[in-house]
Amino acid sequence: MSTHLPLRESVLSWLEHARTLPPVPQAITDVALATLPHWDVLEEAVAAAAPRDEHPDLYGKVEGDWVPSFSALLGESGLGEATRLIAQGADVPVSEVADSFVAFCTGPAPVPERWLLLNADLPRKTRIQLGQYTLQTFTLDELRQAVPMPALHGLRPRSLDLDLITGAPFLHVPDPGRKVTRRPTWFDFTGPRAEALHWQALLPLVLWDSELLRVDSVFTVARGRRFDLNPKNVPTTIKIYPDPHGREQEFEVRDTGDFYVPAKDLAAVTTFCTAISSKIDAVMAGASHQRRILNRRARRLERAARHLLAAYQRTYTDDTVWEVEADELHLDYVIALEALLISPHDNRGGIANNIRSRASALFLTPERQKTVGDIVQRAYTARSTYVHGDVIKNQTEQEKLEELRTLRLLTRQIILRWLVLTPSDTDDLAPLLDDAAQCTSCRDRIDQPLRDFFTATPPSSRPADITAT
Questions:
Q1: Phi and psi based region of residue 201 (left: phi greater than 0; alpha: psi -120 to 50; beta: remaining)
Q2: pLDDT tens for residues 60-96?
Q3: Other C-beta atoms lying within 10 Å of the C-beta of residue 286
Q4: How far apart are CA 174 and CA 146, in angstroms?
Q5: What is d(CA 437, CA 423) in angstroms, rounded to the nearest whole number?
Q6: Angle at the Cα of 291 from the Cα atoms of 288 and 296, rounded to 5 degrees
Q7: pTM listed for this prediction
Q8: Cβ of 469: how many Cβ atoms within 10 Å?
Q9: Which of 39, 80, 181, 336 lies most in the core, judged by the most C-beta atoms within 10 Å?
Q10: Pick from 63, 41, 64, 198: nearest CA to 132
């Protein structure tokens, strides 16, 4: 810090001058602050401590010359916000602000990351590596270190309450090519939706537990530089707790949904998700960096996973599905089943029967096989009704929701079992499933790998057909 002492002294002088500024909002915008004489002094100190050849991200061109960018130094760093707070009489820890600003200017430019906020409740200290992704629950201190000016935590008007997302589960992944922006990017029209783009990290979690899991918001983080999560992108709910005197108090808390992992299961979910992530990587080994799928297995898995997760994203609870979308969700599940279980050698007229037979063959007991066959049969009947423009009759709204849930749970199980069996196959699991459906002695090639996996690496609830054998 001693080598940057002149910069720190210049910041402290700037903050001291802020006490003399008028508190009128128009007089203390970043643009207005950058026209003050004191700004020139601070700008020169930045140029000396953080030259452009070492920190090009801090500079911009003005009339052909490279100069320190006031939008970066005031806006991105948080110094402008600290100046306004001081001008308006707030008690700002100026020493911490100065240290943060020096670190902002002299430290390396951070690598942008994508952060996905999940509607789930995971244990403290969760940190699971899923390929390039990390599933993590952040402490308050870790979140404070990610924002540009930790010293202003709790002082900024309309800022995100970090307490609201402390302990929240985030999937984060480096994204070096992404432009850092302050704008919320949940609806990112420059590419696929979040659940489609990040399916490889989301799928292991969906396969762990049958409860619904969704992405609540997606934003860009450049740690210490930008933290783009808008408070409006954090779904909240009101909970009532008694105070020390027994009186009920209302508190706004993050809506965690129904996906819950107790602390005692953290080791198990880590083992399961790591194993599933490895299996996904094995299947996707045929995908090139240009997103061209060279391997049929990879293409099938990606398609199935994207349709499953698209349906999850539009299902708030098992009893909360837009009626106009219910049939489309039904179609998503059927497409996922077809993607995994169809064969290029199938005759077009027998696809439904083949899918039903192969789906049943993935289960170990005759009772469960029959149940699965019936579910797939009803799903195909509903699918045909929908795509031909007709209305599914003789079904109440509640019955339709129950059927959707049944189909969702079955699709989830089939994807999991397909993953367990497929990496040892070439690109088509259909012949193995067809043999198992016709030949009792061939069943062991299906049953034994599934028993081994569910015994060594069980999800949150071991399937009934596994425990029955």
A1: alpha
A2: 988 888 999 999 999 889 999 999 999 999 999 999 9
A3: 15
A4: 14
A5: 20
A6: 70
A7: 0.87
A8: 10
A9: 336
A10: 198
Burial class (CB in 10 A: 0-12, 13-18, 19+), 351: middle
3-state secondary structure of 250: strand
Angle (nearest 5°) at CA 223 between 219 and 224: 125
- Give strand pairing partners of 173: 114
What's the start-to-end Cα distance of the chain, in Å? 66
For residue 179, the Cα-to-chain-centroid distance in whole angstroms is 18
Burial of 294 (0-12, 13-18, 19+ CB in 10 A): exposed
Q: What is the CA radius of gyration of the chain?
A: 28
Per-residue CA distances from 399 to 251, 324, 395 (Å) = 36, 15, 6
Please answer whether residues 62 and 55 qualify as being in contact, where contact means their C-beta atoms are separated by less than 8 angstroms: no
**Which helix (H) or strand (E) is 78 found in, with range?**
none
CA distance 436 to 363: 10
Going by C-alpha positions, the residue among 367, 356, 342, 341 that lies closest to residue 421 is 341
Pairing of strands 226-227, 169-174: unpaired
What count of Cα atoms within 13 Å lies in the side-chain half-sphere of residue 433?
Answer: 24
Query: 382, 359, 381: which is closest to 370 by C-alpha?
Result: 359
Q: How confident is the model at residue 57 (pLDDT cuts 50, 70, 90)?
A: confident
Average pLDDT over residues 407-436: 85
pLDDT at 89: 93
- What confidence tens digit (pLDDT) does each residue in 307-350 have? 999 999 999 888 788 877 888 898 999 999 999 998 877 777 67
Average pLDDT over residues 161-190: 72
Q: Which helix (H) or strand (E) holds 66?
A: strand 65-68
Closest among 151, 227, 119, 233 to 182, alpha carbons compared: 227
141: pLDDT strictly greater than 80: yes
pLDDT tens sequence across 344-403: 777 776 788 999 999 999 999 999 999 999 999 999 888 887 776 666 666 778 888 899
Angle at 256 between CA 252 and CA 262, to 5 degrees: 125
Q: What are 239's two structure tokens?
A: 């909970």
Two structure tokens written together for 97: 């602000």
